[in-house]
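Quick one:
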Amino acid sequence: MDMRQLKYFLTIAQEGQVTRAAKLLNIEQPPLSRQLKLMEEELGVKLFERNGKGLKLTDSGDLLKQKAESLLLQFDESLREVKGMKEGVSGILSIGSVVSCISLLPKRIEMFRERYPQVTFKISEGDHFYLGEKLEKRAIELIVARLPFEAQKHPQQYSVLPLPSDPFVVVIPSSWTEYSRRESINMKELAQFPFLTLKTDKTTRMHEQVVNECKRHGFVPNIICECSSVAIIMSLIAGGIGATVFPKSVMSSFPSTVVKMLDIEDAHFESDVGIVWLKDHYLPKRAQAFIDSFREEM
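Output:
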């Protein structure tokens, strides 16, 4: 069995039909059917079962699909690594970022583009699980995330460059005029606030960190809304709905005219941040250079 046959098999598995797979591969259906039969004879197993007009993977077929995807990824990575040896820092740098870290990127990208004008960017936003899947499929090359990185892979399979920690601050509506002359607040004052918190179905670290700090000061926050979007929470705060506790860096993306930031007087807790990429996998020069740009300032 060779790489060509594995590509044929994966296309059939993805399309669920030999006819559609043949059109996609730009070959005739009979030769593709013969190749599938040859693979099954060589392996001594059935790879597909008929499911109405389509095909469904057998257990053996599903296992081969997983292995074939991994092999083809490694093959493609090897080709990119060989080609990359003679290339400079150029191309499209695909970055993933969690919603609360987007604000860390604009200045970094501006500085990087001044040094490497041949690099352009593609940015994906999502939670740790979504971005972890994209990283595993090589749809992105690195991730800017809150730490620890909560994804499906074992932590030892990631390389992580920790960045300076990000202190938490309280964010309230500018319309709460009783706080207009204040620059700071103590934790127990938060007990009276309607509270909004950043939380997704699978990533809860920041939410738990804030709630635990409130409990340490003797109260449970009155959470009226859990939301996966920083922008939505900020819009709700600007509308006077409630307050939140966010990493300070988030505030650089939002005007101080609609929300007000207050330092916390009696608690110093921080959000850890880092760059995450797959360990022991090829990393293009542009991604290596982007990571190194963070190292230079540490």
